[in-house]
Specification:
Oligomer: single chain
Distance between the termini: 58 Å
Low-confidence stretches: none
Mean pLDDT: 75
Number of strands: 0
Strand content: under 5%
Helix content: over 70%
Shape: elongated
Structural class: mainly alpha
């Protein structure tokens, strides 16, 4: 489906269902994002500015939708489990089960911060729910920090779209610039990990007599 068609559908849902339509679009975007939230949420704000529903209602329903989508991904991670993730890692070059175990251990120590801050990072905000499920993060904590982080993210983008009106699409460009910096940092971190892993593997004994 083309982006334009998806946007037309999102607008129609929001105008037909009102604020609950914002929640539905946000939930679907969280689980299966045909259009990123930096497009859906400012568009929701613009639609609110046209009087189809209230600004506060839009933010509230968007946050409910984010939480519903995040819970689905949380349970996906819980069902997948650490053992399957470790087994999968063993089949990926330069990865080992102990890398997954370290990642899960890190999440166990910093899970609350990771969940809250992860909601503010495009491309990460949805996926962060999966390790939370794998680690079986207490559900009450997950709901609390997911709601808080989603409220900040949703509120900022919806208010921006509301204030910009017909110029709502400029929000995506601004978020895109910020995302580029974040992705560059994440890419550098991933490259560092791969290089370090390659060096470590090259130094390990071959096991030959």
């Amino acid at each position: 489906m083309a982006v334009g068609s998806v946007l037309d559908w999102v607008v129609e849902v929001m105008r037909t269902l009102g604020a609950p339509g914002v929640g539905l679009a946000t939930a679907l975007e969280t689980v299966f994002p045909p259009v990123p939230s930096e497009v859906v949420l400012p568009l929701a704000g613009y639609t609110a500015s046209q009087g189809h529903y209230g600004l506060v209602a839009a933010i509230g329903w968007a946050t409910v939708g984010s939480l519903v989508g995040a819970l689905l991904l949380y349970w996906l991670g819980a069902l997948w489990g650490a053992q399957r993730m470790c087994a999968t890692a063993e089949r990926i070059p330069l990865l080992h089960a102990r890398d997954v175990e370290r990642a899960i251990g890190w999440f166990g120590r910093h899970g609350r911060s990771a969940i809250f801050l992860g909601r503010l990072v495009p491309g990460v905000r949805s996926l962060i729910s999966i390790p939370a499920g794998i680690d079986r993060m207490p559900l009450a904590q997950f709901v609390l920090y997911t709601t808080a982080g989603s409220l900040v993210w949703n509120g900022a983008l919806i208010v921006a779209g509301y204030e910009l009106g017909a110029q709502w699409h400029h929000v995506e460009a601004y978020v895109g610039e910020v995302s580029t910096v974040i992705y560059a940092a994440l890419g550098a971190g991933l490259l560092w990990f791969v290089v370090r892993r390659a060096v470590r593997v090259s130094r390990e004994p071959s096991g030959e007599a």
